[in-house]
Amino acid sequence: MKKNILHIVLFCSVFGLLGFNFTNAEVEENNIPEPLVCVEPQVLNDTGDACIDKVLENEPIVCTLPQIINEAGDECVDPEPEVIVCTEPKVLVDGACVDPVNIHLQVISGTDSLYDNDISVIPCDSEGNGVMKSTPYCALVQSEVPSEWSQLWINSIGGISNDFNQNLYWMWLANLNIDNTSPTSPYNLSAKQYELIQNDNILFYYNTNPLYISVDNLTPSVGSDVTISVKEFGLDSSWNPVWLPSISKVVIGSNILDTDENGEYKIKILNTDSFTVQGQKDNFISSPLLTINPIVASEEENNEEENNTGSGGGGGSSVSTKEFSIEKALSFLISKQKSDGSLGDPLYTDWAAISAKAGENSNLQSSIKNYLKSNLFNSSVATDNERHAMALMSLNINPYTGTSVNYIKKITDSFDGTQIGESSLWNDDIFGLIVLQNAGYDDNDEIIFKTISFILNKQSDNGSWGSVDMTGAGIMALREFDDVEGVDEAISKAEDYLINTQNEDGGFDNPFSTSWALQALSIDNKYDNEVKDALEYLGELQEEDGGTKGSEDNNRVWATSYSIPAVLGLSWNDILEDFEKMEEENNSSGNIIKSSEEENIEPITVIPEIKNEDLIKPSEQLSIAPIVPQKILNTSNKVKGTAKNEVSIEIPPEENIGANVLAGSAYPLEENNNASFFEILSNILNKIKHPFVWLWIHLGF
């Protein structure tokens, strides 16, 4: 009986417990917190009960050029403008250091002088079009003499206005140049259009006219006669400007003398004392001063004079050496100019520009300069660009920015790391070296020291660079680099070659080769005899019109342009103006991270691994592909970026996860009511089996 009672109690206890555990199982099962699922880029917080924004530590900030990252590294800012410091006498204009143009400026009204001084002119926006250039207008403004203008033309200066009733107008002249045959000549340009050249004489005048003075020889021999001519500005019957003979005064030292009806006065040179001459006339502007420097007559000139006067008894004659006339040569070039200011082909125009600067003929310089600035020259040949750059630089036109073509860049772009231009040639290296050393480059630049090395390696055993003319050019190119190892020796060998090649007549076969050889030998004073002989050779080739003898006009223009700097003993480095080196723009900075758009690379699409500890900061610059709800297949998916390596993401099989962890937003998962009875019963029995085993053992079961 006792056992039956115990069996009943045990049976009830088991079912009671079973019922109790079913209830608790359901309660426990229903109280399990549902995991939250967050939408990228949000993640669960530390407590797991809310979605928060990611903040990615050390996320690089991407700046769009020209902005850069600030010092704190937390934002993009505009870069500070570069501070440009110019070395005197250069001045800062429009973001570049430029040389002022030194001129003499006169402003005269009737008998009153409003301004008469030397002035350094800084480029200004003369025409109001944003183009900075040095003009007579800039000079007038910078002189602080007040003026008023109607577009390109003067209304008044110093409070004195044009008087249309009396036909009195403000006029201006550059170097007393009245040539109106070319549209680019200063006379036909506004004072806002003409570009100044070093040492120009600029005259603004009203209610008066200027005088002009000239002499037939500025370096006459003692005992010879000199003719002084004075002319006055006037108009012909067609209203064209002309210089008319002026019956006026000639001031010679302290003496004031009258000209004849032709406006001339002749004097005999008695000694070697220098003196000045000037033309003067009432109601006219006095002419500029000219200085005459007499010299002692040479023995040949004395013998020639004796022979011409019949002395000597007819016992043979002395041959007079013909001297090359620079003035006649320049006049010849001017006579061959076209209406646009050129000398025809760019080849002849470029060399004429260099000779115009060497001969200091401002009229020829200004007309060619205007032509070069208004006519684009573009070539793929290195020597063409080098020659043209030399022409520009001789006329003080910046080879970087003075025209629409950057000729220095064209030259440096043809550098292959060893030499310039064609590898089989060295003339393009020699002329490239001449240009670059006057454009701010020195032997610290790779292109310079490698080009020097290339030129030295191309020198022949006899000291030449293949020909007389290129040997002369090579000497001129290397002369400024005599501190570079091997240069001095190369120049010495080249000079020996020239000396040994010179002909008995003083020339080097033709005026072209002779000119370049003469320029090279004139650099040192140790070759006086050879220089003298070469000068005589060129003098003999000059014809009556001033041009060098030749078969046709183009060759004569070419040879004459070569001869002028040679006769003057000027190398190309003496003639070319110096310009500061202009570095090529660098569009990147060590502090700038280029955007993918600027690099032409598409943003890489990456699905990042989500970790609770990651703090990701939202950023407009961070390119993350949007993530949309999708069914995840039981496969290994890959996401491709534009980088070389692919980013692979292995996605676990569907049955191993309760839901798509990349989908949707933070909402509870659906309840799972499909668990079997046996799964629940097994779960409950596992919880209670140990107490009952203990109980059964103690009850004797």
Describe the protein.
The chain is of the alpha+beta class. The longest helix has 29 residues, at 2-30. Mean pLDDT is 79; it is low at 22-27, 308-320 and 586-673.
Distance between the termini: 16 Å
> What's the rounded overall pLDDT mean?
79
Strand content: 15-25%
Mind describing the biggest β-sheet? 5 strands, mixed
State Rg: 46 Å
Poorly predicted segments: 22-27, 308-320, 586-673
Q: What's the helical proportion of residues?
A: 25-40%
State the total count of DSSP E strands: 26
**What structural class do helix, strand and pairing data support?**
alpha+beta
| Overall outline | elongated
Number of helical elements: 17
Which labels suit this protein?
701 residues; four-stranded mixed β-sheet; five-stranded mixed β-sheet; alpha+beta
Topology:
Layout: H1 2-30, E1 42-44, E2 51-53, E3 68-69, E4 76-77, E5 91-93, E6 96-98, E7 101-109, E8 112-121, E9 124-125, E10 132-133, H2 136-142, E11 147-150, E12 153-157, E13 160-161, E14 171-174, E15 201-206, E16 209-215, E17 225-235, E18 241-245, E19 249-252, E20 255-258, E21 264-268, E22 275-280, E23 284-285, E24 290-292, H3 299-308, H4 326-335, H5 346-358, H6 362-374, H7 382-394, H8 407-413, H9 427-437, H10 446-457, H11 468-478, H12 487-501, H13 511-521, H14 528-541, H15 553-567, H16 572-575, E25 636-639, E26 647-650, H17 677-699
Parallel strand pairs: 7-15, 16-23
Antiparallel strand pairs: 1-2, 3-4, 5-6, 7-8, 9-10, 11-12, 12-13, 14-15, 16-17, 17-18, 17-21, 19-20, 19-22, 22-24, 25-26
